[in-house]
Amino acid sequence: MTERMAGVRLAPYTTLGLGGPAGAFVEAGSAEEIVELVAAADRAGEPVLVLGGGSNLVVADDGFDGLVVRVASRGVEVDGGRVTAQAGEDWDALVERAVAEGWSGVECLSGIPGLVGSTPIQNVGAYGQDVSQTITGVRVYDRRAGEVRDLDARECGFAYRHSAFKADPGRHVVLAVTYELAAGGLSGPIAYRELATRLGVGLGERVPLARARAAVLELRRGKGMVLDAADPDTRSAGSFFTNPVLTADEAAELERRSPGFPRWDMPDGTVKVPAAWLIENAGFPKGYRRGPARISTKHTLAMTNPDLSATTADLLDLAREVRDGVLEKFGVTLVNEPVMVGTRL
Ligand SMILES: Cc1cc2nc3c(=O)[nH]c(=O)nc-3n(C[C@H](O)[C@H](O)[C@H](O)COP(=O)(O)OP(=O)(O)OC[C@H]3O[C@@H](n4cnc5c(N)ncnc54)[C@H](O)[C@@H]3O)c2cc1C
Predict the structure, then answer these.
(1) Averaged over 117-126, what is the pLDDT?
(2) Residue closest to 58 by CA, chosen among 310, 244, 282
(3) Ligand 1, atom nearest to 49 Cα
(4) 58 near 100, Cβ under 8 Å?
(5) Whose CA is nearest to atom 40 of ligand 1?
(6) What is the rounded CA–CA span in Å between residue 53 and residue 93?
(7) Handedness of CA 221, 200, 262, 122 (dihedral sign)
(8) Is any atom of ligand 1 closer than 6 Å to the C-beta of 122?
(9) What is the pLDDT of residue 1?
(10) Residue 157 pLDDT > 90, yes or no?
């Protein structure tokens, strides 16, 4: 276990490059260390922030007055198609390995930053896949019960960019995640039109895993959604807003205001609307700037800190302007996807 350090600035540990100091900061190299550190902090009444890759976090300029536990536990165990990875494993390295080994189920999640332990939190997803399709178990430290528990997929309560972990923030510390992957070298059925088009196949067709990964990475790079120190558009937390899911009544109201708006009709009668379309059509084009914070020049959903000169307050001012503009124009309230630490939108 590394030493507790005081006053460590969190900005370099986040992909936005934002965030003030931590009261105390420590790196935990194993599941046992994570449990020990979090349990001790809980006993002492010290607030805890579990930090993965910092790619879905907006940390206040004042920082976090408590203990930051940076997850650095490593190890991957393979048992048939069942792959169990420790929380501190790099997510994309695991996807790359799965593709190389011919295991299918996570190939469309290529290029997503962050660590394995964070993937169940918001049910990480992209291009027609999300981790709820492959996760069969999550080992957690339940801070309320003070014990390590193994949760099955049902107990994880997965939904679109949501889970039981997100619904009850801070209660569970993810220690390891088990994914059930299929052998055979082919991707799952391609379920996302833009990806199918790029691959030159029909929806529902399968392609070799390496082709799927390459196409996803190419699409993501074009949108500034693969971390790249040379690309200022990637100094973001990914999509800043989730795609709103409207009730039938809300969708009818939006249709009245904006006939023919783009929509995905969901099986339960709700309607998902692309947040990027709402933002762009509310008058916020790609590259829109407010002070040092900017909407990505490649994708309206990403709020960025392009030359690392913004503060968290600057970024949130931009995000609020966008949220309020969309509400005024369309009557739809955008909700932030990244987790706010010590601040709110
Ligand atoms: C360029 C870019 C592209 C992105 N693209 C996508 C995308 O396509 N799809 C998508 O779903 N997301 C995307 N994201 C968001 C982000 O990468 C994911 O949410 C990722 O899973 C976050 O992982 P992390 O390790 O960086 O988590 P962090 O940002 O460190 O933490 C996020 C939250 O999870 C909690 N947490 C972290 N680790 C644990 C743990 N072990 N136990 C309990 N809680 C924990 C933290 O406390 C925090 O609340 C993108 C982000 C960026 C910057």
Answers:
(1) 96
(2) 310
(3) 47
(4) no
(5) 174
(6) 13
(7) negative
(8) yes
(9) 58
(10) yes
Q: How far apart are alpha carbons 78 and 74 in whole angstroms?
A: 14
Residue tagged 């409207």 (tokens): 246
Give the distance from CA 185 to its chain's centroid.
26
Positive or negative, the CA dihedral 282, 191, 127, 178 is: positive
Q: How many residues does the chain have?
A: 345
Using alpha carbons, list the distances in angstroms from residue 69 to 5, 106, 295: 11, 27, 30
Place of tokens 């010290």: 46
Count CB atoms within 10 A of the CB of residue 190: 25
Distance 295 CA to ligand 1 centre (A): 20
Q: Count CB-CB contacts under 10 A for residue 230.
A: 5
Using an 8 Å Cβ cutoff, are 235 and 15 in contact? yes
Catalytic residues: 161, 239, 337
Mean pLDDT, rounded, for 40-69: 98
48 lines ligand 1 (CB under 6 A): no
**Which residues are paired to 142 by β-bridges?**
147, 172
Query: CA 92, CA 115: separation in Å to the nearest integer?
Result: 8
Q: Report whether residue 234 contacts ligand 1, using a CB cutoff of 6 Å.
A: yes
Q: Cβ(15) to ligand 1 under 6 A?
A: yes
Q: What burial letters (b/e) apply to 191-201, b meaning 16+ CB within 10 Å? A: ebeebbebbeb
Cα 55 to ligand 1 centroid, rounded to whole Å: 5
Query: What integer pLDDT is reported at residue 328 of this predicted model?
Result: 96
Ligand 1: which of 13, 121, 122, 141 to mutate, most ligand atoms within 8 Å of CB? 121
Inter-CA distances, 89 with 31, 95, 175, Å = 12, 11, 11
**Cα(57) to centroid of ligand 1, in Å?**
7
Whole-angstrom distance, CA of residue 150 vs CA of residue 174: 10
Average pLDDT over residues 184-213: 97
Is this model's pTM higher than 0.85 or not? yes
Name the percent of the chain lying above pLDDT 70. 99
pLDDT at 24: 98
